[in-house]
């Protein structure tokens, strides 16, 4: 049983691209010029490296792109989509894109938006092969404030229920209560299925939560600066104690004349003379030396607007960038940039009076431009208790932001090696105070908890992301996050298909194939000496070994892909892992879960027998159409790009981007 989950960031554009690529449209061909070739979809594709899927690369019915997608991906049994953005009226009137509510051999179950504040956004839908569903519920949370947003649909498969969710994106005091309220309602709904109905639970979808440090790009891990400063203070105390014991002086005062604290606190006696420790502590000394200067500079933080014109529509709007005033520059560190980067040159050196320093990139709102530089402790009001809860401690910044501040404000340039040591240190990781993160970890705790199946099967996989900032082309450098999951009750893990056995003398080819590193056969020359669990393999997978090429890095759109590049999404047999769908389809890729067919022992003969109220509501496309609909123009109902952009505060764009990801700041996750 193959389950696939995918945030399509709008089903209409995703289906149109699948249609153009595989259902009679035009696709890019070969040619070394990188331009769009004239080959059509009727041209025979190149041989696939997977014998199990090579026969599937043929042109399908032009009116059934979703059916084509399901078949080419290994005859998917259950497909869970998030952010379909299809209005209820379109389903009732049968004007939905490509008539996608009906796919031969499948039933579809929809949750659509009824909250007027969310129209044109959200929506989840589950497609299941005929005979796999006992019932469905498009409002399983039991709370209108969340069910009205079209974020969850539940299907009953007999021994288990499947929750398909699109969790709200919330990382500030305004949106966090909504997000946490949804998560608590979701957990209550899952517990009801377990406790009242005796069901196992599978949870899939876009959780908008990065679970640990491996699930965010290393430069976006957060550094707890207060812990860095405290560790530096203790290290200096240890050094003074050793000097005193070694006969370096018996004074009882510190350098600033205060009484020595070393006799009053519990500190260990680690060997600070070790060369590796000296290298590791050098960046900590940099932070200790310059942090007060950074805080002073950020006290002048402001957002400067820049008028921008949309070249397509002529509409004008403001974009914003952060600026600070720096009074003076501290002494330069010995950790000079060796070519590995570490911040821009603005403000990097020179003395004298105050100077203006620009930070970050131009963003679409003042909040996005300034948010990453906020050092305050942040709290939100818990919707259950009404109490204020800390969701981010003071002086918490990402490695990327800390490096930028050190370079631009203080003139201290860290090379990549230093920045990676910071990222790998005990001071860095996802925000440990994030309530959604704590919620998800509690979901996985204990013998009766759920299992993150991807991490269970690939515990050492690095940089295996599922979402990237599309506007700034972050997929092509693999600077993303893993926020799409397949979670399974521990009691159901016996039904998860294990990884196939290693062939004799295997050096990682199995993992290469299953993780689809670049979508090519594991024997490809590029895979020689590549660690299948490492960052290089992950980059190869995200870019199909460079076959997916970026456009401009200032939001200029996505470069056309060749047929060879597009076909890489189909390589390999069905498995649990990541399906690297093309960047032009969505800012997310799909994730997959392969279960044993034994789990479906309680299936029914046909879903046409279902006649309960919740299931009928989940299939609005089966309602009897009013006679007036037969005399309408039949045009496709959609929300205009201008109205969508006004809801999001973003200029109209042709790029498929999940709505709530537009507020993500340069791929940097606050959670």
From TrEMBL:
Q: How is the cofactor bound?
A: Probably binds two magnesium or manganese ions per subunit.
- Region of interest (Disordered), ranges: 29-60, 240-285, 331-356, 605-671
Where does the record place the Endonuclease/exonuclease/phosphatase domain?
A: 5-238
Site Transition state stabilizer — annotated at: 208
- Record site feature (Important for catalytic activity), residues: 484
Q: Which Gene3D superfamilies match?
A: Endonuclease/exonuclease/phosphatase
The record's family statement is:
Belongs to the DNA repair enzymes AP/ExoA family.
Q: What is this protein called?
A: Endonuclease/exonuclease/phosphatase domain-containing protein
Coiled coil location? none
Q: Which GO terms describe its molecular function?
A: hydrolase activity; metal ion binding
Q: Where is the composition biased (Acidic residues)?
A: 250-279
Q: Where does Mg(2+) bind?
A: 83, 206, 208
UniProt keywords, alphabetically: Hydrolase, Magnesium, Manganese, Metal-binding
Q: Where does the signal peptide begin and end?
A: none
**Low complexity compositional bias, start-end:** 628-654
Compositionally biased, Gly residues: which spans?
Answer: 338-355
Cofactor(s) recorded for this entry are: Mg(2+); Mn(2+)
Which species is listed as the source?
Answer: Cyclostephanos tholiformis
């Amino acid at each position: 049983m193959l389950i696939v989950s995918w945030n399509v960031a709008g089903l209409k554009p995703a289906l149109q691209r699948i249609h153009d690529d595989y259902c009679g449209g035009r696709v890019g061909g070969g040619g070394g010029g990188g331009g769009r070739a004239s080959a059509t979809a009727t041209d025979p594709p190149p041989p696939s490296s997977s014998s199990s899927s090579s026969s599937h690369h043929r042109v399908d019915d032009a009116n059934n792109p979703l059916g084509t997608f399901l078949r080419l991906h290994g005859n998917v049994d259950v497909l869970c989509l998030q952010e379909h953005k299809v209005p209820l009226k379109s389903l009732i009137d049968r004007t939905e894109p490509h008539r996608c509510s009906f796919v031969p051999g499948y039933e579809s179950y929809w949750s659509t938006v009824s909250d007027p504040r969310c129209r044109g956004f959200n929506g989840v839908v589950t497609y299941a092969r005929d005979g796999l569903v006992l019932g469905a519920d498009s409002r399983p949370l039991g709370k209108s404030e969340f069910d009205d947003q079209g974020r969850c649909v539940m299907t009953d498969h007999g021994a288990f229920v499947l929750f398909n969710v699109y969790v709200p994106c919330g990382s500030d005091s305004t949106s966090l209560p909504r997000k946490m309220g949804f998560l608590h309602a979701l957990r209550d709904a899952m517990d009801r299925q377990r406790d009242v109905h005796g069901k196992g639970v599978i949870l899939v979808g876009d959780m908008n939560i990065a679970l640990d440090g491996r699930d965010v790009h290393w430069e976006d891990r957060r550094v707890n600066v207060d812990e860095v400063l405290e560790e530096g203070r203790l290290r200096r105390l240890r050094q003074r104690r050793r000097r005193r014991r070694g006969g370096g002086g018996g004074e009882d005062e510190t350098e600033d004349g205060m009484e020595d604290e070393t006799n009053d606190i519990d500190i260990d006696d680690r060997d600070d003379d070790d060369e590796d420790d000296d290298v590791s502590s050098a960046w900590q000394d940099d932070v200790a030396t310059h942090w007060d200067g950074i805080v002073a500079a950020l006290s002048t933080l402001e957002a400067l607007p820049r008028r921008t014109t949309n070249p397509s529509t002529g509409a004008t709007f403001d974009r914003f960038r952060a600026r600070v005033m720096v009074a003076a520059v501290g002494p330069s560190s010995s950790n000079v940039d060796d070519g590995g980067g570490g911040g821009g040159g603005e403000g990097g050196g020179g003395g004298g009076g105050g100077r203006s320093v620009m930070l970050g990139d131009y963003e679409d709102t003042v909040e996005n431009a300034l948010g990453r530089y906020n050092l305050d402790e942040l709290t939100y009001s818990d919707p259950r208790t009404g109490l204020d809860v800390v969701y981010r401690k003071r002086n918490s910044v990402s490695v990327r932001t800390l490096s930028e501040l050190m370079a631009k404000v203080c003139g201290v340039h860290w090379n990549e090696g230093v920045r990676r040591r910071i990222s790998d240190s005990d001071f860095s990781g996802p925000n440990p105070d994030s309530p959604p993160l704590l919620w998800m970890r509690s979901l996985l705790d204990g013998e009766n908890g759920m299992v993150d199946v991807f991490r269970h099967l690939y515990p050492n996989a690095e940089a295996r992301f599922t979402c990237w900032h599309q506007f700034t082309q972050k997929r092509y450098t693999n600077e993303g996050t893993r926020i799409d999951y397949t979670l399974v009750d521990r009691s159901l893990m016996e039904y998860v298909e294990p990884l196939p056995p290693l062939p004799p003398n295997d050096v990682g080819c199995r993992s290469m194939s299953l993780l689809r590193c670049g979508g090519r056969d594991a024997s490809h020359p590029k895979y020689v000496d590549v660690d299948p669990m490492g960052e290089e393999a992950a980059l190869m997978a995200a870019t199909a070994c460079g076959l997916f090429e970026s456009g401009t890095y200032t939001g200029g759109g996505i470069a056309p892909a060749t047929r060879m590049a597009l076909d890489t999404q189909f390589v390999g047999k069905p498995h649990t892992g990541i399906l690297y769908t093309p960047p032009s389809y969505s800012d997310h890729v799909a994730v997959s879960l392969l279960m044993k067919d034994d789990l479906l022992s309680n299936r029914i003969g046909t879903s046409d027998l279902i006649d309960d109220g919740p299931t009928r509501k989940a299939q609005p496309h089966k309602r009897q159409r009013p006679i007036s609909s037969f005399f309408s123009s039949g045009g496709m109902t959609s929300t205009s790009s201008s109205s969508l952009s006004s809801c999001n505060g973003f200029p109209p764009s042709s790029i498929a981007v999940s709505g709530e990801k537009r507020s993500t700041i340069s791929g940097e996750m606050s959670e």
